[in-house]
Amino acid sequence: MFDHVNIKVAGFGGQGVMMFGQLIAYSAAYEELFGLWFPSYGPETRGGTANCSVIVSKKQINSPVFQSANHLIAFNLPSLQKFHDKMKDGGLILYNSSLIKDQVTSDKAICIGIPINDIATDLGSIQVSNIVMMGAYLELTNLFVESTIEKVLIKYLGEKKAHMLDINMEALRKGREYVLEAGVTYA
Amino acid sequence: MFDHVNIKVAGFGGQGVMMFGQLIAYSAAYEELFGLWFPSYGPETRGGTANCSVIVSKKQINSPVFQSANHLIAFNLPSLQKFHDKMKDGGLILYNSSLIKDQVTSDKAICIGIPINDIATDLGSIQVSNIVMMGAYLELTNLFVESTIEKVLIKYLGEKKAHMLDINMEALRKGREYVLEAGVTYA
Amino acid sequence: MAKVLMKGNEAIAVAALKGGVDAFFGYPITPQNEIPEYLSKHLLAAGKVFVQAESEVAAINMVYGAAGAGARVMTSSSSPGIALKQEGISYIAGAELPCVIVSVMRGGPGLGGIQPSQADYYQATRGGGNGDYQLIVYAPETIQETIDIMKESFDIADYYRNPVLVLVDGLIGQMMETVDFEKPVKKRFIPAKDYATTGTANHPGRNIVNSLFLDPVELEQHNLQLQKKYQQIKNNETKYEMINMENPEYVIVAYGTMSRICRSAIESLKEEGIEVGMIRPISLWPYPKAAFNEIPSGVKGILCAEMSMGQMLDDVMISDKGRHEIGFYGRVGGMVPEPEEIVDAIKNFKDKVVK
Amino acid sequence: MAKVLMKGNEAIAVAALKGGVDAFFGYPITPQNEIPEYLSKHLLAAGKVFVQAESEVAAINMVYGAAGAGARVMTSSSSPGIALKQEGISYIAGAELPCVIVSVMRGGPGLGGIQPSQADYYQATRGGGNGDYQLIVYAPETIQETIDIMKESFDIADYYRNPVLVLVDGLIGQMMETVDFEKPVKKRFIPAKDYATTGTANHPGRNIVNSLFLDPVELEQHNLQLQKKYQQIKNNETKYEMINMENPEYVIVAYGTMSRICRSAIESLKEEGIEVGMIRPISLWPYPKAAFNEIPSGVKGILCAEMSMGQMLDDVMISDKGRHEIGFYGRVGGMVPEPEEIVDAIKNFKDKVVK
Amino acid sequence: MEVKYQKTKGLTDKKLSYCPGCTHGIVHKLVGETLEELGMIGDAIGVASVGCSVFSYEFFNCDMQQAPHGRACAEATGIKRVRPDNIVFTYQGDGDLASIGIAETIHAANRGENITVIFINNAIYGMTGGQMAPTTLIGQRTTTSQDGRNQVLTGSPIKISEIFSQIDGVAYLERVSVTNPKQLIKAKKAIKKAFTYQKEKRGFTLIEVLSTCPVNWGMTPVDALKWVESNMVPVFPLGVFKDAGEKNV
Amino acid sequence: MEVKYQKTKGLTDKKLSYCPGCTHGIVHKLVGETLEELGMIGDAIGVASVGCSVFSYEFFNCDMQQAPHGRACAEATGIKRVRPDNIVFTYQGDGDLASIGIAETIHAANRGENITVIFINNAIYGMTGGQMAPTTLIGQRTTTSQDGRNQVLTGSPIKISEIFSQIDGVAYLERVSVTNPKQLIKAKKAIKKAFTYQKEKRGFTLIEVLSTCPVNWGMTPVDALKWVESNMVPVFPLGVFKDAGEKNV
Amino acid sequence: MPKGKVYFEEDMCKGCSLCVSFCPQHILYQDKTTINKSGYNIIRVSEPEKCIGCAFCAMMCPDSVIKVEVDK
Amino acid sequence: MPKGKVYFEEDMCKGCSLCVSFCPQHILYQDKTTINKSGYNIIRVSEPEKCIGCAFCAMMCPDSVIKVEVDK
Ligand SMILES: Cc1ncc(C[n+]2csc(CCOP(=O)(O)OP(=O)(O)O)c2C)c(N)n1
Ligand SMILES: Cc1ncc(C[n+]2csc(CCOP(=O)(O)OP(=O)(O)O)c2C)c(N)n1
Ligand code: SF4
Ligand code: SF4
Ligand code: SF4
Ligand code: SF4
Ligand code: SF4
Ligand code: SF4
Ligand SMILES: [Mg+2]
Ligand SMILES: [Mg+2]
Q1: Is C252 found in the same domain as C175?
Q2: Are residues C221 and C275 in the same domain?
Q3: What confidence tens digit (pLDDT) does each residue in H27-37 have?
């Protein structure tokens, strides 16, 4: 595990970007770590793009903002372009290869594409593409123990959306599987 | 004449207190002196009493407020009581003896009563009692040359009240006469 | 008009007309009512605009609209009324529009009273509007100076595209003094108002009056540009007077009516052999900080005198930078101190020192 | 509840409930909407009062009424909304009523933007309301501290019969952090509200809530009494933190989110062998002036860092009294500086010095 | 002999601050008598507004709050929400209610706040020395309409009762005058009805009282009353504009 | 082939900032087309308010000012008074006009300001994320009325057209919708009439447009239009509420 | 005709004359020779025996100066 | 029946489907497989020949995406 990770999550509005970030922060809290999430709200939110920042740390978090991320989760091309250069050395860029067709490279980060739209569509719900991404992300980073994300998801969905839990868990699994099958790793 | 006089004018609302003060300030301006007038507006104005301060000076006036007056013009008893003690040595207290029946005394000022209500009522207009007071005041102090106050009065009354000029001039005269007849003087 | 006797508020109105005001929007409040009353008569007669708004909030936004459309606009009010205008003022400053605001201070806080006060110094110089903006604030001491400043304010506002606030206490508004309207004031070259919304038929492109910049990069740029302008105003428009500063034992800092009272006190003290100087800020923003560098050595202390509980005191402390002991004397709530009180305060300076 | 992850605005709402709030009156504005949204649900469910007012002006006056009637009341808003509340705030302070006001700052001036900012420091500490009044202003740096302060604020407001303003930037409002609601806070003995208008059937005599004193003698007395209270608050309620102040080369002064960024910068600088301390004001009024007396000798300069163009800077200058060179670093309009910028500002301190 | 009429206990002993013959004093009596007769003095919380009646907190013999100009209905809302069983009323002039405070008044009405508003329409700003009010009549001279109110530039007198009749939250709404004993008795009935409706929690009640300002109108008090009858009543017709009756219970 | 319909020159090329299917876009087109067809683009000065339409200064292809929340009519008054021959209009939401800005709007109407107000009633605060508006329907869920608007606590939807029908300075006043092409054509006629009246200096004109907020209502754009027809129109009946016709000329 | 009696709390009177003007018996008048402590001319009853106790004077008095008693 | 032709400025489309829903000929549909640069699914015409040029689609389009031409 890491002592302190800066994570940037970005994509179109509607792709579940904010939820992705919040699930990580909730998981941090669940594991009694320090978690911090903040949205970039502003002109872009209505225009169609959205992004948020997450920090997970073993100690009290000072600055809530960071210049460069350890991990970038890019759900679309404009987001990738916007944040691609703001990475720490040894970082991870996880991107939506359903929308970003070209192979992404970086001299600072390992770049891994996950065709989350395709996987989610196969599952019968484009809605859970962000959870597919979550599966891949957790498989690669081992940020939290297995059971944490499930507990957090149950709480997040609440009673009203409890029926959605199964497909979300399925999406998580598919994300993990994709990574395992592709044989990619991130230290 | 004086180099610098502080004048306090006070009475019931409706007795022409403000007008009295303004006429003096206008006269100062007319004679190319420095004149300053200011009203005490506040809780008392609606309650029935009113007062204003006037400064006439040969040089630029600094402080617009003063602690003690050279001249006090008191149109009723509460006003006299309020300002009686705030006089400079050698001052003048001119009071309305129609309403203030007891003889007024002061160890700092000469006190002269003028029965302005009675004189004005005799003239047929209680309204001009303040002008009766003005006649007495100017006769005693010689603050301005004779013609000044008439010019100022003409301007003050304006076209609309031009017909009131005669009775005002008459009131002025009666005020002067009263002082002359009573044989009182003020250096 | 040679010398005439005139009430401060009326003089403000006459001076505004001489300054070329096109439109007045305001709401009644004591002690400044003679301003709109006079203008209601004379602006309309001259074919210009007078609107009694439904509130101070409406009035300041009418000012915003008319200023955006290119007119010379003013409003006037008093303490709680100026409080209500804060949002609008922030917009006007943010959109870089010129206008003149007259603030005739009365006692506070809350409904307070209607007697003269200087307790709205913070309101004028720090504002309650949001964000980093500044008004140009002038605080004259006589009706004559008020007239001169009023006449010039419209030009200054136009020149910098910034609101100018003329700050007087109720005494200046309510008293009458002998004044001269013909005193010449500095003229400035005012560029054409090519930003004004007059319809695209009347200018190239589309004109937009706006203070919204949702993109933080743009909003920061906009702020930096405002700061540049403010620096320019600081360089060019700081006004103050130094009085009896040859070799004073103490220095008084006072503005407006208070400085006149202090002038009398200084004369009395001189008669008693005590030399006291005075720094009289005329512009409260920009504040004449540099004046404090000119204080001769040997001065035992600085007395800040205000008709408030100590608001300009902040600027005195900032400007003096710890070089002197600073004392304070203030009266509030409509109590106007007499010169004797200032004399006493100087004589008992030690008791007045602020910790 | 042990540790939970919660958005700042929601945490403010929860903490208000824990602080015993009886009634909320407010008007929507970004970035603080989660506060009323949460309270609308939970106050009504608890049989308490939630009213979405027609405007900020109405909201603050509902607060005035409810506070006068003896309830624990709060409102929340953001920059232009707080501007509109200035008159009402002055009345509440003038009438000596308790309430809690939450101000979540966004970029200005005018409509500005909706990203985080600290450019309403003047608005909070100097106000735009009229007269000599003060709010007690707290500026926490984390959501945890915001919760603790919110809980205590209602007691402080009641104790002094004075409004408390909790000042956070939009980042604190919008971000989520892990927090603990059970941290105990100081308890105070709150006297019964015998001033409240509850009907003469419910108390002896007639109770009047009022800020009007037309007689200047009375108004001055009232002001002097307020000042006495303010002095008491200065003595008792000043809060600040000193960080790494053993032997610093430079001292930073920063509050709120900015102080957290500076903490990170201080850590980085330490790694490079540069020791930098920090004074972190928690109460912005009363300002922790005394902290500046504790700055060890040998400090080369003080850097004031704000998400504004320099507003707290005034208080830094007043407090330091010319003892040190003072530098300033600010970002505005929603730009939140990163720790690296503060590191650079310290390294290039000479360029940051304010003249 | 028995007492037929004497000063109500609903008012304090303090001398009223109004000018001679001003009907503010008459309306004060009607409100005070209503509070007394309905046994509400001990439960009432009044809100004084800014205008000549700013000092009404010294005159009504119950708990009082003084509100910023125009905000009495907001302040009353705050009070009533936290003290729903008290009787809450405001006393406001036309500058206060119809000009600067119209938003707060309309929205209190629209929310159906269970309060009573006494609205003094004297077609002028009395307190500040006689400026034009939104209710000033066309042609009426004031210090800010010195040639008479000009319809083209300033519009027509605003009709509060007519406007408020369109608001659902209003339970009772009547325009009255106090120009003679007969009208005064009607006015008192209206005020009593409004307070009674409040007691019964029926919603927002407002009584518009056509009133005089002899000083700023430049008339004797007696002539001022006649002017109300001959000039104001034709523009502001008297009557009940809304009575939700049992509906709102 | 000839062009039957294309984007109006009354709007700029800038992409609208509204959510998919939001009727703000439709009303923008109607106003833009009106300006174009009446030849007013060069003379028009629009006032953008605070709400989702805050950026309308980027969309209307004429000079524009951006007003503080609720103050568009005051700002428009300032503009019109100093530029009486320009065409001045405001574009305001229901939070902006009916809540915080009702005083400024009523008084502009009462003065008979010769301006045109386009009033977008979408029964919610769109921009700030879906809080209750004064026009929100009883039972409608919003983020500040999560169990549905409660009539007892918050009153009933405020009826701007009904209220403004009582104001003398109003020259034209109609409530329209844009739920289908037929209604849209009616709406455009109303808007055109309002601008024409302004040109003829007849006084204050206001068109209330029942509008949608699919995002905050939680509906598809198509369902949102149906909801307007089935839920809003019964509460806010369509039609002409005032037409001063020749009278005000 | 019933018989009434009116009492004036003189120092509260502001001399507005509304009572005079609304007395149906025309028995009230302003005494121009006497002022109270606020400076106003006070009201007097010319023919007290004509008072019918209608209380119109008291009702119209803005300053609650007048108390009216009637014979049962 | 008159004949019409519709043109879409695709990148301006927000995929709201109002055009689809108001086309009396039911010839418009959303292409779920294609997104424009803002991420929205675009609109296509299934049977262009059936277009009557009524412009209902264009009138109801909030984003002025559609231009309609008709045969004279
Ligand atoms: C915010 C604010 N604006 C203006 C004033 C000044 N003011 C005091 S009373 C008043 C008008 C009162 O008129 P009205 O409400 O008609 O009452 P009246 O005196 O006629 O009874 C005004 C404008 C104020 N005190 N506060
Ligand atoms: C003084 C002030 N208060 C509040 C806000 C926040 N605010 C922005 S838009 C808005 C409401 C907009 O609702 P509406 O007018 O109905 O427009 P819509 O978004 O629904 O089109 C509010 C309250 C603000 N910007 N300024
Ligand atoms: S100014 Fe007019 S309204 Fe006010 S008390 Fe005097 S007469 Fe009455
Ligand atoms: S939030 Fe609602 S009103 Fe605003 S643009 Fe989106 S759909 Fe339209
Ligand atoms: S009670 Fe009637 S009759 Fe007697 S004095 Fe009064 S008004 Fe006249
Ligand atoms: S009505 Fe009252 S105040 Fe007026 S004159 Fe008669 S007794 Fe005096
Ligand atoms: S013009 Fe008419 S028929 Fe043709 S696509 Fe559009 S709506 Fe359908
Ligand atoms: S109506 Fe316009 S924006 Fe909506 S789907 Fe059709 S073309 Fe696209
Ligand atoms: Mg009035
Ligand atoms: Mg809306």
Answers
A1: no
A2: no
A3: 999 998 888 98
Q: pLDDT of B78-104, one tens digit each?
A: 999 999 999 999 999 999 999 999 999
H or E segment and range at residue D311: none
How far apart CA D77 and CA D63 sit, in angstroms, is 13
Distance from CA of E104 to the nearest CA of C (A): 13
Domains and CATH numbers, chain E: 41-243 (3.40.50.970)
Residue E247's pLDDT is what? 53
The confidence band for C1, taking pLDDT boundaries of 50, 70 and 90, is very low
Q: Does C353 touch chain D (CB under 8 A)?
A: no
Three-state SS for chain F is CEEEECCCCCECCCCCCCCCCCCHHHHHHHHHHHHHHCCCCCCEEEEECCCHHHHHHHHECCEEEECCCCCHHHHHHHHHHHCCCCEEEEEEEHHHHHHHCHHHHHHHHHHCCCCEEEEEECCCECCCCCECCCCCCECCCECCECCCECHHHHCCCCCHHHHHCCCCCEEEEEEEECCCHHHHHHHHHHHHHHHHHHHCCCCEEEEEEECCCHHHHCCCHHHHHHHHHHHHHHHCCCEEEEECHHHHC
- SS3 state of residue H68: strand
User: CB count, 10 Å around CB of F90?
Assistant: 31
Domain residues for C349?
241-354
* Residue A104 clears pLDDT 60, i.e. is over it: yes
Touch between D and C (at least 3 CB pairs under 8 Å): yes
Residue ranges of E strands in B75-137: 87-96, 109-114
Section G25-44 average pLDDT: 93
Q: Which residue of chain A has the CA closest to H34?
A: A99
Mean pLDDT, residues F3-23: 97
The verdict on D287 and D206 lying in the same domain is no
Query: What is the helix (H) or strand (E) element at residue E64, kind and residue range?
Result: strand E63-66
Nearest CA in chain C to D220: C333
Tens-digit pLDDT profile for residues E206-219: 999 999 999 999 99
Instruction: Give chain A positions within 8 Å (CB) of H13.
Output: none
Please indicate, yes or no, whether residues C138 and C45 belong to a single structural domain of this protein. yes
- Tens-place pLDDT, residues E108-164: 999 999 999 999 999 999 999 999 999 999 999 999 999 999 999 999 999 999 999
pTM (two decimals): 0.98
| CATH architecture type of domain G3-71 | 2-Layer Sandwich (3.30)
Pocket test for ligand 5, best of G1, G3, G5, G6 (most atoms within 8 A of CB): G6
Q: Which of residues 182-221 of C touch F (CB under 8 A)?
A: 197-202, 206-212
pLDDT of res. C26: 98
Decide whether any atom of ligand 1 lies within 6 Å of the E48 Cβ: no
Probe ligand 6: pick from G9, G13, G27, G38, max atoms within 8 Å of CB? G13
- Mean of the pLDDT values across residues F112-119? 98
The nearest alpha carbon in chain F to A14 belongs to F215
Collapse the DSSP code of D234 into the 3-class scheme (helix H, G, I; strand E, B; otherwise coil) and give the result. Answer: helix
Instruction: Give how many domains chain A has, as a whole number.
Output: 1
Q: Which residue, D237, D266, D301, sits at the end of a domain?
A: D237
pLDDT tens track for F122-157: 999 999 999 999 999 999 999 999 999 999 999 999
Q: Please report, as a single letter, which amino acid is at residue A65.
A: V
From residue E221, give the alpha-carbon distance in Å to each of B82, E48, F120, F194, G57: 31, 24, 48, 46, 14
CATH of the domain at A95: 3.40.920.10
For residues C350 and C228, state if they share a domain. no
CATH number at residue D35: 3.40.50.970
User: Would the CB of E134 count as within 6 Å of ligand 1?
Assistant: no
Chain E: list its partners (3+ Cβ pairs within 8 Å).
B, C, D, F, G
pLDDT of A1 > 80? The answer is: no
